[in-house]
Structures are given as structure tokens and as C-alpha cells.
Amino acid sequence: MRSGNKFGFGPLEEVTTTKRERSVGPMGAAVREAAESLQETTEAKIEQRRRNAEDAKSWRSAQVEGRVLVTLPLGDIETTDLPRDRLDLDAVAGSDEMEELKSSIRARGQKEPVAVYLDDAGRYQLKQGWRRLTALRQLFAETGDPSFEQIVARVEPGEAGAAANRVTRYIDMVEENVIREDLTFAEMAQVAIAAAADPMVDGDDAEAMVGRLYGSLHKMKRSYIRSFVFLLTELKGSLKWPKELSRNVGVDLARIVKAQPERLDGLQTALAACATPDEQGAAIAAILSSGESERSPRKAAPATRRDKVEFRVGAMRITARDGECRIVTDWDFTDVPRETLERAIQRFEDELGLAIPKSSAA
């Protein structure tokens, strides 16, 4: 009997088949390459768009922060809005230092940009870089070279003519020259006077403006500037060459004018009659000499020295000792704004500096 299942057939034998290999034809290869190329191109475009967005964001940030440099024609820049921090611009324009700057620009080009801002009329006004602007104007006038007809500038961000930035512009204008110790005390005082008179600057008088413009300077330098502010304000236009006054001469002259106000008219008359800086110096020397001689009798009669002096001014009780002045009152000085307190103390120091002889204050 034949073995097998009831259907009469044996188990199926496993059949081994060979898989047929398919090769990509020319058309398929072309389609595949096109797809891969399209994918790479798409990824590259996405990456490029991302970079462009980052670059655009960085550019807008640089514009907002005033870090973008532009090239402007010299004729587009005005210098009429802010008073310059130089009292004798003609002398600076014709100085040896100006010739040295021109030689540097002629050989190496403009290395440092100037700073400008837009005024209410949409014109570029100079904030920093008067010497660089003047040097390029002189070079263009002398040579006619078009490379000297343009200037590299940094444009201040913000709206045109924004009054909120007015004091900052004054500070920026004088900052680089102050840091280089290139301004006289008379010039720094003149800037404070001009800023206080500026209708777009709120509040402070010229002496208080010194603290805002020159806050980074040592308090003693600010005290010297305030002495020159007082002197220029009192003498008005009779002091024809204020830059010729050294620091010590200006401070001593301010001390005499403040201590002896009755001499102001004679001082103005004597200075107004001066025709040269030398004559002005001689007149001031005579005034200082007479002022010291008038004070000498009081210094020759020394008072009996006391360990301390006590007195009252209104609600305040004052105790003065060597190196100490104590004020006691019911007021809570922590409620007084710091700026007000600093201004009051500064004026207190200035008043004493003008009243106490140098030998006593030393």
C-alpha cells in the first residue's frame, strides 16, 4: 500500500528560487538624481533663509544701537545745532595739530568715524569729530581729490530732533576731548553754560549742569569747572581770552570775585580794555596781587583757636571741628533725592573752597 496521506500525495518539496536582480535604468537614475538634488537644494535654501533672517536681525539691532557706519558727503553735515566745545575754533583749524591730522588722513585715510544725528529738519548734525571733519574739508579744498569729499560717520539712533538725547549729545561731544585732557577748564565751563541756556535741555543751571556733563571726572575737577562757570558768568564778555587762564589763576580769580563782589565792575573794565592776551594776563596778575594784599591783614591777626564751633541755622544744629562738620536735625535725609543732596553738598564745598584760604584748606 502506498504511503501518504489520504489524498494520495506526499509532502511538498521546498523549492529554492533565485531572486532576480533589477538594475536601474537610465530614466530611473535620472529621476533619482533629480530627487536627491532637489532635496539638497531645498535644505540649502532653508539654511540660507535661516542665515538671512539672523543677518537681518543683527543688522536691525546694529542700526538701533547706532553701530552702523555710513559714508556721507561733507556737504551733508551741519555744525550749527550744538555749540562746539572749543572757544577758538579758528586757532584749532590752523594749528600744527591740524596739519598732523591732515597728514595722517592723507597717508592712511580716515581711521576713526565721526558721530552725527538727525535734527528736526532731517539734516545730519555733527556730534563728535569736528577736527576730523575740518581736516577733510581742508584737504578737499586744497587738493580737489574726491576721496576727501566724503566722510565715514556713525549715525545716532532714534527719532530726528529727539530732545531726550540732548544732554547725552553734549556729553558725547566733550567726552573724547576730556578723556584726552585736551580741553581747558574755561572750555568745559563754556559748554556747561551753553547747555544750561539750551531751551531743549530741561532744568539745571550752569553749575548743576557741570555734574551732569562731567560726572565721570573727579569731584575736584568738577569744582574747578564750577569756579570757571562762575567766573565766565560774572565777567560776561569782558574776559576776551578765557583759554589763557590756567586752572590756578582762574580759581583764585573766582575766589576774589566771590569774596569781594564790589571789585567786579573794576575788573570788567580793566579786562575789557585789554588788547592782547599778555595785557589780560598782566591785568589779572595785578588784581590777584591786590586781592592777596587786602586779605593779608586779616590773616596777620590770628584768632584764638577753638577745638570746636557750635551754632544753629534754622532747624539744624551744626558742630564744626578740624576736618569735620556735623549737621544734626529732625529731617530724614534718606527721603531727599540723591541728586538734590549731592548738588547741595557740592555747593557747600564750593562755597567753602572760595572762602577758606589755601593754607587753611590744605
TrEMBL record:
<protein>
    <submittedName>
        <fullName>Chromosome partitioning protein ParB</fullName>
    </submittedName>
</protein>
<feature type="region of interest" description="Disordered">
    <location>
        <begin position="1"/>
        <end position="58"/>
    </location>
</feature>
<feature type="domain" description="ParB-like N-terminal">
    <location>
        <begin position="77"/>
        <end position="140"/>
    </location>
</feature>
<dbReference type="InterPro" id="IPR003115">
    <property type="entry name" value="ParB_N"/>
</dbReference>
<feature type="compositionally biased region" description="Basic and acidic residues">
    <location>
        <begin position="42"/>
        <end position="58"/>
    </location>
</feature>
<dbReference type="InterPro" id="IPR036086">
    <property type="entry name" value="ParB/Sulfiredoxin_sf"/>
</dbReference>
<dbReference type="Pfam" id="PF02195">
    <property type="entry name" value="ParB_N"/>
</dbReference>
<dbReference type="InterPro" id="IPR037972">
    <property type="entry name" value="RepB_N"/>
</dbReference>
